[in-house]
Amino acid sequence: MPAVQETVERVKRIDVDQYRYGFETLIESDKAPKGLSEDTVKFISEKKNEPAWMLQWRLEAYRRWLTMTEPTWARVDYPKIDFQDLYYYSAPKPKKTISSLDEIDPEILKTYEKLGIPLREVAMLEGVEPKPGDQDPARRKIAVDAVFDSVSVATTFQAELKKAGVIFMPISEAIREHPELVQKYLGSVVPTSDNFYATLNSAVFSDGSFVYVPPGVRCPMELSTYFRINERNTGQFERTLIIADKGSYVSYLEGCTAPQRDENQLHAAVVELVTHDDAEIKYSTVQNWYPGNSEGKGGIYNFVTKRGDCRGDRSKISWTQVETGSAITWKYPSCILRGDNSSGEFYSIAISNGYQQVDSGTKMIHLGKNTSSRIISKGIAAGKSQNTYRGLVTAHRKATGARNFTACDSLLIGDKCGAHTVPYIEAKNSSATFEHEATTSKISEDVLFYCIQRGLSQEEAVGLVVNGFVKDVLQQLPMEFAVEAQKLISISLEGSVG
Amino acid sequence: MALLEVKDLQVRVEEREILHGLTLTVNEGQVHAIMGPNGSGKSTLSHVIAGKPGYEVTGGQILFKGEDLLEMKPEERAAKGVFLAFQYPVEIPGVATMTFLRTALNAQRKARGESEYSTPDFLKKVREVSKSLNIPQDMLKRGVNVGFSGGEKKRNEVLQMALFEPSLCILDEMDSGLDIDALRIAADGVNALRSPKRAMVVITHYQRLLNYIVPDVVHVMSKGRVVKSGGKELAQELEESGYAQFEDAA
């Protein structure tokens, strides 16, 4: 069989049914009744002990949502979602109030251990004194805020962050403890009217992270949150808000896994980032949602609104993502380059296999003077999947000196998948310099054979070539994530090899 | 001892018969040259030995170290000691040459049940070999063959040969695209690898390469068959009288 045909056979045999993280945790959970109504919204708000203004905000969003229609312009196809047939809130019943990791329901902790989330390890690192001369720089500290089905289960490293003045807590807590901050920024980057799914999220969001970094502070560790959707038919509506005040820096990692499901699950999160003068936020995502079984049934719908507002001059926001899961991915992490000399970056690896559909990309909106943006997008399509890059680069007529570089490359494996590029480029200012490069290729048989003749197996050769293809983006990930991402890429394309 | 035995090999490519019963034996320690006009099947032979997909063997046999070579996957053949220096080495962007070399070498060693090279040992070996071939260290940090000149690509092939220490080296038109100096360096590298346990098969159109890599045996191919074999003088004869005389012999 010719080399490419064998690759195709191998890729087909990737047992999407053997999704590594496909299991359920049997835990009692506290659920809102099915369906969505003002009562559901009130139920959620009450569960979270929210102040009146927050409930009001949600209700306004809900009422607006009722007037909106679902958008259909994306290059994705899915059965109509019955919004009344979902649970909008699910939290594991707490045994008592949590004050340390040891008091968390051990079933939940076990789940996180299975997922490889280092809650325990982090706790151990915190407790153990390093031996003299035993400073391993690779063991950088990561503070983990674990979210389990809509409720943040534990937040570690509070003490060290508190010393630096960094606020890192579940958003539900922040609403109670830092209402002024939340009120000031929530909805200021993604308004409740923004789009159908953002509006829905605004009404029913249950949890997520809140981060505030005070002026001049470089957050002493990388912040991380893990998500998981457990309950059948719960949509997960995470809401994250990160604010970097003047001259501050924070790096945030988001990693997600999900259990095996038959019914599709909706994930409509909203992430808002704000940077003030000279501040920087680095936001990295390694996504591992369940992609659907070998017939394309089940799997997560990932309809997410992520946006960063470079409000301050010389501020910077960078998005790095490795997307390898979800039945359907619909997201455009974007940057509003408002401040003068502000910059935005988007680095992405989007892999689709089986019957997955991806319509993803970014928007770089140049408003201020001398703003710059950089987009490196690598799409890999295999199986019968469809992978679309949709990008918008726009310069306002007052955005003098706007610069953009975009490179979007697609790699096709086999002949049943599709890669599509939909770039929108609008320069309303004559001094804008926008560069756009795009390539579409398939893994060359000659390249594969060269590797195989040197002793590599077919699988190893594909892995090597793909790694080379995505190298530019992998290099942008924080070290811990880069290793996980490489493994994830191998798994997505090579099945049993981990 | 016979390292490679090709017996009455018949090969079809895309419905066309290219090799019509080719027979050839290469012993350890020998250098064989295969010459012939375009279309005689020289590259087909090297590709079939290496295991490139797209070639259908319709008859005959190939034994390597006494084992049935055609039964083995290409990566298995590599681990057993078959090395093909490609005529047109490909580029692999984003994969650093060092990484490629280490991954391939360790894959071969693993297949043979040997332990993987430790990083310091590997680096030492690469440094030794690249020095003798005049390959600067920073070239090894670049993507495999990315932006390499023709001469550099061929030297990279020889570098790999020196690292993998194969038993059978097939050099597919090593001289194509090389100037005199580049040719000399590459040839020196190949000659340095001669050994009693190793055999080389040098495929070429032109006699000139054989001035640098002096063969023990010269074969002339025409229309998918070996039509004449002889000593190194045969190459000189060909240079003077051309291939036409052999066309009818096929």
CATH architecture of chain B: 3-Layer(aba) Sandwich
* Biggest β-sheet strands, sense, barrel of chain A: 11 strands, mixed
Strand order of the largest sheet of chain B: 6-9-10-3-11-12
Helix/strand/pairing category of chain B: alpha/beta
Q: What share of the residues of chain B lie within helices?
A: 25-40%
Helicity range of chain A: 25-40%
Q: How many helices of chain B? A: 9
Report the count of strand segments of chain B.
12
The greatest inter-chain interface is formed by: A-B, 26 and 30 residues
* Beta-strand percentage range of chain A: 25-35%
Which consecutive residue ranges of chain A, at least 5 long each, have pLDDT under 50?
1-19, 94-99, 120-141, 227-233, 258-262
- Quaternary state reads heterodimer
Describe this structure in words.
The complex is a heterodimer of chains A (498) and B (250). Chain A has 498 residues and is an alpha/beta fold. Chain A has one domain. Chain A has helices at 3-12, 38-47, 52-66, 106-114, 119-127, 158-164, 171-177, 179-185, 196-204, 445-453, 458-474, 479-494, and strands at residues 29-31, 90-92, 142-148, 151-155, 167-170, 209-213, 222-228, 239-244, 249-257, 265-267, 270-275, 280-288, 300-310, 316-323, 328-331, 334-337, 343-352, 357-366, 372-381, 386-395, 403-412, 418-427, 433-442. In chain A, β3 and β4 form a beta hairpin. The longest helix of chain A has 17 residues, at 458-474. Chain A is globular, with a radius of gyration of 22 Å. With 250 residues, chain B is an alpha/beta fold. Chain B has one domain: P-loop containing nucleotide triphosphate hydrolases (Rossmann fold, 3-Layer(aba) Sandwich). Chain B is 36% helix and 30% strand. The two termini of chain B are 29 Å apart. The chains are: A alpha/beta (498), B alpha/beta (250). The A-B interface holds A 1-3, 6, 444-447, 449-457, 460, 464-465, 467-472 and B 50-54, 73-75, 78-79, 83-84, 86, 89-95, 100, 103-105, 107-108, 111, 143, 160, 164.
